[in-house]
Amino acid sequence: MGSGGPEAGVDLYRDTWLRYLGYANEVGESFRAIVPVSLVWASYGVATAYVTADAVDKGKKAAALQAQQGGGVAKGATLAVVDTFIWQALASVIIPGFTINRICAASLYLLASRTRWPLPVRKWATTALGLSAIPFIIKPIDRSVDFLMDSSLRKLYKRDEKPPTSF
């Protein structure tokens, strides 16, 4: 889960249970058919707080590393915060939230059109399907966001710089 080596120690936001807070909105989307929409939006708040905390943490680590190396602290910290925030926002919140939302919406529609199950049963089946899809979408989305970032934003960074999210 984490990107730091053994010398980096445990990354609180990538190597502990806190990492799962980034998936809160996918859980919220899975339950959208059953719970008030305010709870779904609250799940996005939890995921966004996680993304922000991870970005700030990576910025602090980059600033400390740059200070040790006598480099530009502000530049390194800014790159780390921006890179981490954009990567996490895409890979942990926006794309998976949309994906689970569409999986659940499609399944609810298909269950309504293809079965005679009562609405509560269809809603719970949709929730179960959404929850079960989460583990299968994570790795492909992470790899796709890596490719997207490497092919676009990260090309703006100097080649000799360490990618900010690896702090």
Automatic annotation (TrEMBL):
Q: Name one GO biological process term.
A: apoptotic process
Q: Which InterPro entries match?
A: Mitochondrial_18_kDa_protein
Residues annotated as transmembrane: none
Q: Which GO terms describe its cellular component?
A: mitochondrial inner membrane; mitochondrion
Q: Which domain of life is it from?
A: Eukaryota
Provide an example Pfam family for this protein: MTP18
Please give the family membership noted in the entry: Belongs to the MTFP1 family.
PANTHER family given for it? MITOCHONDRIAL FISSION PROCESS PROTEIN 1
Could you identify this protein by its name?
Answer: Mitochondrial fission process protein 1
Native source species: Anolis carolinensis (Green anole)
Tell me what gene encodes this: MTFP1
